[in-house]
Amino acid sequence: MPNKIYFTPGPAQLFYTFEEHLKKALFLDIPSISHRSKTFIKVVEETNEALKELLELPNGYDIFFLNSANEAWDRIIQNLVINTSHHFANGSFSKKFYDFAIDHNKKSAITESSAGNPFQSMKVSEEAELIGITKNETSVGYTFTEDEIAQLRKENPDKLIALDIVSASPSLPVDFSQVDTAYFSVQKGFGMPPGLGIWITNEKCLEKAEEKAKTTSLGSYRALPNLKKFGAKNQTPETPNMLFIYILGKIAQDIIKAGATRMRNDTTYKATLLNQAIENHPLLDHFVSSQKHRSKTTVVAKTSETEKILKFFESRGLVLGTGYGSFKENHIRIANFPTHSKESVEMVCDLMKKIE
Amino acid sequence: MPNKIYFTPGPAQLFYTFEEHLKKALFLDIPSISHRSKTFIKVVEETNEALKELLELPNGYDIFFLNSANEAWDRIIQNLVINTSHHFANGSFSKKFYDFAIDHNKKSAITESSAGNPFQSMKVSEEAELIGITKNETSVGYTFTEDEIAQLRKENPDKLIALDIVSASPSLPVDFSQVDTAYFSVQKGFGMPPGLGIWITNEKCLEKAEEKAKTTSLGSYRALPNLKKFGAKNQTPETPNMLFIYILGKIAQDIIKAGATRMRNDTTYKATLLNQAIENHPLLDHFVSSQKHRSKTTVVAKTSETEKILKFFESRGLVLGTGYGSFKENHIRIANFPTHSKESVEMVCDLMKKIE
């Protein structure tokens, strides 16, 4: 059993059923069986189905297994961008997606807003083939609203929209019909160890990749048409992280069984408690001033007492997150993921009151 | 506890200390701590050191964490080949590396020999920048000898040599000073679940990548100079598969403690037993006719009774491997990895005698 409760925004607290599924996976020899066996094909099928149901994916959207959200940025640029993309960035991770495009020698554009602040303009460069946005900017706790995503879609019907749902999924409802591709890593909301990334794409993405392939290499085993070829058989091109694919499916099933709507309502309830705790505390203030853009899953407060607060909690077995990057010493970040019970969040809020 | 003993050549039997380290990793919260924490940096350092010692890596060789051997092929072509590579292939996996180069639009060359047979010529195309060879062709059990590797090096001093050591490491001794880059995945000789790949490179590789970067993108987070930048701090660009990196280091340490030389001697002893069992059996014959090219870690026999033999063993809780690809029904493959005890291999040989 773990020693502490982690409220860090990823790597994070393991999902409460993680160890149970891990034991079962070992009992079933999941790490030793062939990845081409009927047993494992069934595992992939079940994980796909559970994720599709939990995330409410529309028809025509496929799920592929990568190894991290970093890899999703890499493969999206490699597969879906010929010349240029446009990125909306107001934090480290949204900025990094743009950096990856530049690394790939794309002539990409960026609309930057100072960290945590809404964008002054949502105008997209005309030649951009793909727009990168971040549902939940984990570094500063900024959320792109569903209305903003829908508006972006309306104004750019011919461009691909790529949505970062790291630390957003499965807690925040997302209308996937408004985007073409989305991705997350499992060490946030799904409460798993890092090492598995999920890449969601629609048919428009596949068409774009096929168009690009006429003139430029898409890479090799993780070229989208190749992922699609294997995915259609519930397989992967390479021997994948079979253990984690199995456990991810089981955790998704657990959340469905306990009620996805309930989990999302609980997320809102817990976020409300945490936000109140921030508002009522003399040492804390919201970092994201715009209420509707405040993340429910990564609650971020600015403070001049980060070290003191973190030490106070750590000595009680609770690990909160520091600020990210340049905010390391001026923020605290509190993850609010499905594995965090209402009781544990209430405990955080109660303890917070004792810090002066 | 697993139900069966897997003699399949990967995914394979878990290392006998795997579960112990897994439990300890969970106790230490390895999957939840920050990948930038001092604790995890220490984990990466220890895993690197254990691997360097176990594999007897010379100075100037770096270890990087990928997610599979497929990814190693992908990243090698992306980072180290500008125009063309040359591949020696006499089985499915060595051929696949060539296919990956073609997928990347390289003008690569291939010297093919029929599966399991020695190469008629070891001549390399003049313009090739990198030579791909396979220490242990897992699909058919063919081993490239150390002498052949040394000869290739002598004849091609200016080209990079990439050695596939999937299913060879850590059992087969390799003189890494004769190659520039090598790679393996952990689900073979290291007895781990799939999902982690190891990429070894030397300074010549870094120079080549830096040369290529002047004109062409190397990708993004896994561009070799970026891996090197993070690796120098015992870090990774992305949040990696922390749990597996921890366990890999512990397994490497276990093998070192029990004696790497002893493990390699045992490998030879067990291979000898398996080869004798094949020679003495009316239904079995060696697939690789050349004795010195026969793999010690993936022992392959041709037979017309694959199904019967596999069923016989499976009913006794022992899982042997089928043939690979087109040999599925005409070969059996028996993995001989460090986790397979001498006793378990003796049991396989004894049981084999009972099949008529």
UniProtKB/TrEMBL annotation, chains A, B:
Q: For this UniProt record, give its keywords in alphabetical order, as a comma-separated list.
A: Amino-acid biosynthesis, Aminotransferase, Cytoplasm, Pyridoxal phosphate, Pyridoxine biosynthesis, Serine biosynthesis, Transferase
Q: Which organism is it from?
A: Ekhidna lutea
Aminotransferase class V domain location: 31-323
Which protein family is it in? Belongs to the class-V pyridoxal-phosphate-dependent aminotransferase family. SerC subfamily.
Keyword Membrane in record: no
Q: Does the keyword Flavoprotein apply?
A: no
**Record-level GO BP terms:** glycine biosynthetic process, by transamination of glyoxylate; L-serine biosynthetic process; pyridoxine biosynthetic process
Give the Pfam families listed for this entry.
Aminotran_5
Q: Which InterPro entries match?
A: Aminotrans_V_dom, Pser_aminoTfrase, PyrdxlP-dep_Trfase, PyrdxlP-dep_Trfase_major, PyrdxlP-dep_Trfase_small
What reaction gets catalysed by this protein?
Answer: O-phospho-L-serine + 2-oxoglutarate = 3-phosphooxypyruvate + L-glutamate; 4-(phosphooxy)-L-threonine + 2-oxoglutarate = (R)-3-hydroxy-2-oxo-4-phosphooxybutanoate + L-glutamate
Per its record, how is this protein called by name? phosphoserine transaminase
Q: Say which domain of life the source belongs to.
A: Bacteria
The cofactors named for this UniProt entry are: pyridoxal 5'-phosphate
Which EC numbers does the record give? Answer: 2.6.1.52
In alphabetical order, the GO MF annotations are: alanine-glyoxylate transaminase activity; L-serine-pyruvate transaminase activity; O-phospho-L-serine:2-oxoglutarate aminotransferase activity
From the UniProt record, give the pathway where this protein acts. Amino-acid biosynthesis; L-serine biosynthesis; L-serine from 3-phospho-D-glycerate: step 2/3
